[in-house]
Write a structure and sequence with these properties.
Distance between the termini: 35 Å
Number of domains: 1
Largest sheet: 7 strands, mixed
Structural class: alpha/beta
Strand order of the largest sheet: 5-4-1-6-10-7-11
Order of helices and strands: EEEHEHEHEHEEEEHEH
Number of strands: 11
Radius of gyration: 19 Å
Shape: globular
CATH class: Alpha Beta
């Protein structure tokens, strides 16, 4: 089975300049996601999609293939799906290559590893899902803020406040990985569609680096994990 891993890595980043190659423990951020993909027992091909030459060079040095992302698909306002389609169309046109499953690994989740990748892909195939996403479960009271600054409960009645043990499980998408069959993606043009599965990851490994504070937290967690 052909499983294509796609790692999006734009050059632009408002929060942290060139975030995708910033150093964590003396390694570029990109290293951790490429490593998770290459060490997977199920992934058959790993491609980084980028518009930036420096990111491209680092990705190749780490063992990944690179397909250049057009500038028009590399700004903050463009969804990820057009870039996935661009890669698939390029591979079909130049190599007549078509994967069975498309795996999307967001580079901002460096604590996700090859074990998580393989477990999620195995679950996708075992349950015959069309797509799967990763996240963690938690139990909490959710509220929504209205236009007038007042808040309203989303998942419980304050007059009948349940004990924690009796609360419904909430599922939180962590962005670490998405996977979808080729046919489902071509039909929906969406990374998540059809029969959708959920792969649970530990909450402490679900960090997504968007800010400098996130970066500091991940560095701290990695140092702790190295000592275990």
């Amino acid at each position: 089975m052909e499983i294509l891993s796609i790692i999006p890595a734009r050059g632009g980043s408002k929060g942290i300049p060139l975030k995708n190659i910033i150093k964590i423990n003396k390694k570029p951020l990109l290293y951790y996601t490429i490593n998770a993909s290459l060490k997977s027992k199920l992934v058959t091909r790993t491609i980084v999609s980028t518009d930036h030459e420096k990111i491209s060079k680092i990705a190749k040095s780490l063992g990944a293939e690179v397909i250049k992302r057009p500038k028009k698909l590399a700004n903050d306002h463009i969804a990820l799906e057009p870039s996935i389609s661009q890669i698939l169309d390029h591979l079909k046109k130049t190599e007549n290559y078509k994967p069975d499953i498309i795996l999307i690994l967001q580079n901002t989740s460096p604590l996700r590893n090859s074990k998580h990748v393989d477990e999620a892909l195995t679950l996708l195939k075992k349950r015959n899902y069309d797509s799967i996403l990763s996240g963690f479960s938690y139990y909490t009271f959710l509220w929504k803020k209205g236009k007038d600054s007042r808040v309203k409960p989303l998942n419980y009645d304050p007059k009948k406040r349940p004990n924690h043990q009796k609360m419904d499980e909430q599922l939180y998408e962590n962005g670490a990985l998405f996977a979808t069959t080729y046919n489902a993606f071509k039909k929906s043009c969406c990374r998540i569609s059809g029969r959708i599965g959920f792969y649970k990851m530990p909450i402490e490994l679900s960090y997504n680096i968007d800010t400098l504070d996130d970066l500091k937290d991940v560095k701290r967690i990695m140092k702790t994990l190295e000592k275990l």
